[in-house]
Specification:
The chain is of the alpha/beta class. The protein is built from twelve helices and eleven strands. It has a seven-stranded mixed beta sheet, sandwiched between helices. It binds pyridoxal-5'-phosphate.
Length: 417
Amino acid sequence: MVRSASQDPLERLHDAEPFPTTNDSTGRTLGEAEIEAVADVIRSGRLNRTVGDQASSLEREFAAVMGSRFAHASSSGTAGIHTAVAAVAPQPGDEVIVPPISDYGTVAGVVAQGAIPVFADVDPLTGCLTPETVLSVLSERTRAVVVVHLMGAGAPVDAIVAAVRPRGVAVIEDCAQAYLTVPSGAAGYAGTRGDIGCFSLQQSKHITAGDGGLTITDDAALAGRIRLFADKGWPRETGERTHVSYGLNYRMTELQAAIARVQLGRLTGIVRDRRRTAEAAIEGLTGLAGITLPQNPESHAFWQFPIVLDRDVIRTGCREFAERLVALGVPASGGYLTTPLHLTPAIRDRRPFGTLFPYTVPPASRDVSYGLGDCPNGEHLVAESLVCIPWNERYDSSHISRVIGAVRRVHADTVQA
Ligand SMILES: *Cc1c(COP(=O)(O)O)cnc(C)c1O
């Protein structure tokens, strides 16, 4: 078919096919095997993990892939992080250090356990916590740090562990965006470096069951508390109907687990394909003034493809830069969040239970409050510098050419003369 397309390849960006998206089958790697696995569970009539073996099998298989002793499957990534915080067992009013750029699921469990989120600033290019920023907000009431491997980049988690472990502070890794990431200098995957690693199976993540969470640890006591918290504190192995500790119902269903097991078998290929196209994009974009590209792509998981603008060199902020990419047919968003987490109303207003609890609970060692200026680097990323290009394993060389062409065009139009 002859199309009256412009001869200029950049003009043709406008009427090209939409990019594959993780919002539907175009950008997901889901096939007959997942359909069969779900159908088998339905035929068995065993849809709950207490009567089936899908969730327990998934746990065994995920622990093996990660090289960790224990894994626990939960209903969502947020639930998994909540179980991790509960297992670490902060007292009401204890502090948990978190970054200002992440999904709200990073902090929801901290708040739910009556602990106080304390925000440490992030590296201005990766958006990840650093040992220096964590130490700068550490107090005698700090009980844990949640380290987020943002966009799939490896945070310096080994250095954070080395900095806080002597102070008795637990490290929870939020790897919801970071399957098979190897943090720089680390001898293993993100999620295995701290005390507990948390993953998500939500629709947009590398592998999905719609929703779901996976939590790993090498510590038997933590693993036991995670399991109990996600199952109403019910010690099933005893055969007793009793409740030995406070817990909720965060169990993964057998339907989710059956899908997740098939997805897990696809994980290595999915991450490899995302890396391959991301490396091609980096090669095609290297050398543009005022643009920082992802570092260490060989160990990055590329949940999204982040670009950081130097606002002394690029005239427009990240939101307008993203809008210009979208106008050229390339999906993009500016800043990732509307506001950093410490300024989102649910945190900023300090009324998680309708009152000031736990902010005022004795013996609070300081009055933690939230405001603009707490995390300048995080605030700058969200407001000015971070451009996110959604990524998935279904991108091919034509999509990468379009990404390169569009970013180069927007760069040329916005770089300072
Ligand atoms: C997705 C995500 C979560 C929450 O996971 P859900 O499965 O959506 O509850 C937490 N942290 C990060 C960094 C995420 O990307």
